[in-house]
Automatic annotation (TrEMBL):
Keyword Membrane carried by entry: yes
Annotated compartments: Cell membrane; Membrane
UniProt keyword terms in alphabetical order: Cell membrane, Membrane, Transmembrane, Transmembrane helix
Keyword check for Membrane: yes
Family: Belongs to the 4-toluene sulfonate uptake permease (TSUP) (TC 2.A.102) family.
Name of the protein in question: Probable membrane transporter protein
Domain of life: Bacteria
Membrane topology: Multi-pass membrane protein
Membrane spanning residue stretches: 45-69, 81-99, 105-123, 161-188, 194-215, 222-242, 254-271
Length: 274
């Protein structure tokens, strides 16, 4: 029964992660930590194993989602590679930070991090995108309705942000989309659907680096990973399909509500130990 729960968890996490551009780790990591209190097979799971296993799953979720979004032509290749030039090194730094962290401080930090992200999303309508400059990256996206949206960013701003996102990815095992998607929407003016799809490609690339580091450190439980993988692959495809049918504002609202609930629960568990 517990193995079935892991399969369903992989499907659910990848589906929501793909819909919102998170990668699913923001669901898998806290779920593994929470289930550790009630499950015999997950009993005593450490933050390092939860993060390492999650990042391995993110490779398959990211690849599955990216392939689906490529068919929809919603991935900005150039931007994904520019962001990866920052998130890749950041992911390796995050893995280094993760090595000695204990369970309760990890849960509290993770919970605070998630609540901050949700707060940023709440304020996004009151924050104007950074002004685009001629020497920056300026892009045009045509929606399915035929509307033209202009967006863009400065590399000198985008790459450090991506480095910080990558650090959070390696530290918390979340893929990084929970920060990168809001940054792309709020600061750079990305259309939400395009931000989600581009984020998934960046997550795929960053997860390869960070998961390889966690594997080298022995932080991956291969049995958990095998149970999570089938759901992660099909969930990534399903999430991309659902994303295409949702209104942009619906995607943001779902992300905001979901993050608040998870963040508060993690902080409570870290403080009380239950």
């Amino acid at each position: 029964m517990e193995w079935l729960v892991l399969v369903v968890l992989g499907l659910f996490a990848a589906m929501l992660g793909s819909v919102m551009g998170l990668g699913g780790g923001i669901i898998i990591v806290p779920a593994l930590m929470l289930l550790g209190n009630y499950s015999t097979i997950l009993n005593g799971i450490t933050p390092q194993v939860a993060v390492g296993t999650s990042l391995l799953i993110m490779i398959f979720t990211g690849l599955s989602s990216t392939l689906a979004y490529l068919k929809q032509k919603t991935v900005d290749f150039k931007s994904a590679l520019i962001f990866f030039s920052g998130s890749g090194p950041g992911a390796l730094f995050g893995v280094w930070l993760n090595k000695g962290i204990q369970t309760d401080p990890f849960l509290i930090l993770f919970g605070i991090f998630i609540v901050i992200v949700s707060f940023i999303l709440m304020m996004r309508k009151h924050i104007k995108p950074l002004r685009r400059r001629p020497n920056g990256v300026n892009r045009i996206y045509i929606t399915q309705q035929g509307n033209t949206i202009e967006y863009g960013y400065q590399r000198i701003i985008a790459i450090p942000i991506a480095f910080f996102v990558g650090t959070c990815s390696g530290l918390f095992g979340i893929g990084g989309g929970s920060l990168m998607v809001p940054a792309m929407i709020i600061l750079f003016g990305f259309p939400p659907h395009l931000a989600v799809a581009t984020s998934m490609m960046m997550i795929f690339l960053s997860s390869i680096l960070s998961s390889a580091s966690h594997i080298a450190l022995g932080n991956v439980d291969w049995l958990y990973a095998l149970a999570l993988l089938p759901g992660a692959w099909f969930g990534g495809q399903l999430g991309a399909l659902i994303n295409r049918k949702l209104a942009s504002e619906t995607v943001v609202n779902l992300l905001r509500i979901f993050l608040v609930i998870i963040g508060i629960r993690l902080i409570y568990q870290g403080i009380t130990g239950s």
